[in-house]
Each structure stands twice: as C-alpha cells, then as structure tokens.
C-alpha cells in the first residue's frame, strides 16, 4: 500500500523501515537518536490496559508525555538517576502487521502495527505485546512521529511489572 501525503508518496516499506530503525535504536538505548524521530511538539502515550479508545486523560495512562515531558524522560533515562534501568534492560523488539491508514488531518499518516518486546532484567524475562497507533509526518528528513502510541494487549500488568523502558 502507498499513501500520498503532501505530494510525497510513502510506501508501507518506507514506514516499516522507519519502525524497524526505531526498534533498533531503542534496543541499543540510543535515546538521543530516538528523540530525533519526533517532531517538536510531539506526544508519546501508553494508555492503561483497560483503555477503550477514549481520551487517555479520561481513562488513565501509564504515559502521557507532551514534548517537554518526553525530552525530560529521555534525559532521565540517560542519567544514572534512572535506577530502574541502571544497568539497562536487554530488549528485543519485533514489529509486524504494519498498516497505513488515512488520517482525518491532511498531511498526517496514521500507522498501525503490532509489537512484541522481550525484556530481560534482574534474572527475569518478560514479554510485552500490543499494537501501535502512530501519527507520522513526512518531511525533508524523512518520517517523524507527531504521536507515538503503544497500546498494551495485556488484560493487566502483573504485580511488580515495570514500564521503566520505552514500549
């Protein structure tokens, strides 16, 4: 599938390459490179596991970062003060079922995909599954996130589960 956004043709392969590159960046803990994938003013959201599609502000969320909070999150994760991730978890991300969708707002590309993130930390091995619902903006430097949303497929998180890494 292809989408025509602002006169630019974007293919599913273009979007897959963008998402795969992001996964590689996150698994390598290169947070400055990850932040560069966002346009200024972007949002990062991880709704609660009982989210039904309403506003994340009305239903509760694990993460609802505006641009300033997103930059602060990256700064904290890069510091030694991020005790929950010092040393960092070992993660491996798999992304599939990438789909391009039309968005109501001109110039935006809505992208959905599924994910599995395997995480090893403190002798434990966890799997996080879910789907992405992103808004991407094409530009001269390639695709950028306007909104990055990770929706967990879990009914609930187990006691002691930590979301101290980026989903």
% residues in beta strands:
over 45%
Q: What order do the helices and strands follow?
A: EEHHEHEHEEEE
Secondary structure tally: strands: 8
The helix content, as a percent range, equals: 10-25%
How would you portray this structure in words?
This protein is α+β, with helices and mostly antiparallel strands and 167 residues long. It has four helices and eight strands, in the order ββααβαβαββββ. It has helices spanning 12-27, 31-35, 56-59, 67-78; strands at residues 2-5, 8-11, 38-47, 61-65, 90-102, 109-121, 124-139, 142-152. It has a six-stranded mixed beta sheet with strand order 4-3-8-7-6-5. A two-stranded antiparallel sheet has the order 1-2. The two termini are 26 Å apart.
């Amino acid at each position: 599938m292809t989408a025509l956004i602002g006169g630019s043709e974007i293919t599913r392969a273009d979007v897959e390459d963008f998402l795969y590159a992001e996964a590689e960046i996150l698994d390598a803990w290169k947070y400055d490179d990850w932040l560069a994938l966002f346009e200024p003013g972007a949002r990062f959201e991880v709704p609660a596991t009982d989210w039904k599609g309403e506003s994340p502000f009305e239903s509760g969320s694990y993460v609802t970062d505006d641009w300033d909070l997103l930059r602060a999150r990256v700064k904290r994760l890069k510091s030694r003060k991020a005790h929950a991730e010092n040393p960092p978890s070992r993660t491996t991300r798999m992304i599939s079922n990438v789909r391009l969708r039309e968005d109501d707002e001109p110039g935006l590309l809505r992208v959905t995909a599924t994910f599995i993130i395997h995480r090893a930390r403190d002798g434990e091995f966890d799997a996080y599954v879910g789907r992405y619902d992103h808004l991407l903006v094409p530009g001269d430097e390639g695709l950028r996130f306007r909104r990055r949303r990770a929706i967990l497929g879990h009914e609930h998180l187990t006691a002691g589960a930590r979301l101290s890494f980026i989903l």
